[in-house]
Design a protein that fits this description.
The chain has helices at 3-22, 30-51, 56-68, 72-80, 91-101, 110-122, 134-159, 168-171, 182-189, 202-211, 219-228, 230-236, 242-259. The chain has 260 residues and is mainly α. It is globular. The chain binds fe (ii) ion.
Length: 260
Amino acid sequence: MNKQNLIYLKEQFLKYTDGFILNSDEKNNPFFLKKEHTQRVCSEILMLADKLAISSQQAMLAESAALLHDIGRFRQYKEYGTFLDAQSVNHAALGCEVIKDENLLGFCSDKEQNILLDLVFFHNAFDLPVDMDQDTLFLLKLLRDADKLDIWTVVTDYYFSADLNNNKFINLGLEDDGEFSKKAWESILKGQVVKNEFVKRLNDLKLLQISWVFDLNFSESVKEIQTKGCLGKIFSTLPESEELERVAEYVKNYIKEKTS
Ligand SMILES: [Fe+2]
């Protein structure tokens, strides 16, 4: 892959996504939100690539993966009217189909195509694959961290915004009933990412988002989220309870440990 290839891929991305954006008259154009998310994930991954001083070749692959990671979201929303994979399709698998159908990587070697398809396919998997080669795994870790760094910014802004309850693309249609799931709470105290099946209401989703910190792969990413202060902000929107204070303390100590 070279610089020209990356410029071409960016053009293809814009051409593909603008087709959805321009044809949508929905409030908070969901396609536009995904395009913006993608562009910010590209910035986050380049920031991490820079901090980790990776080669320019690896950085170009990383940026390409960031550009393509959510390409399945466009067809997903158009066909199913939701970004919830559980109610539609796995958007990562769909993304791989789109990449092939649209021949977005026709300019790449077979090896690069396979790497990028693997990165897209596994970007949202609950666990990292066990049999991936080390170079690809490294890029996958970068992509997953960069993706989370942007999602945290988006959801934190949303929880502090005026149109709360009004953005089903971000709150996934979940209600704030003032409660939270014991299982989500317990997962965090075990240092585990909350499973999707424990997410029944908005506060559970917030706990899931907080628990992503355990899934970060690089201390640079943990430092970044510490600087952004997103997790503390999300905590401040949860109900007051002793149990949640324990969770906040646990996460605070975890971050301290990872960044010192
Ligand atoms: Fe995604």
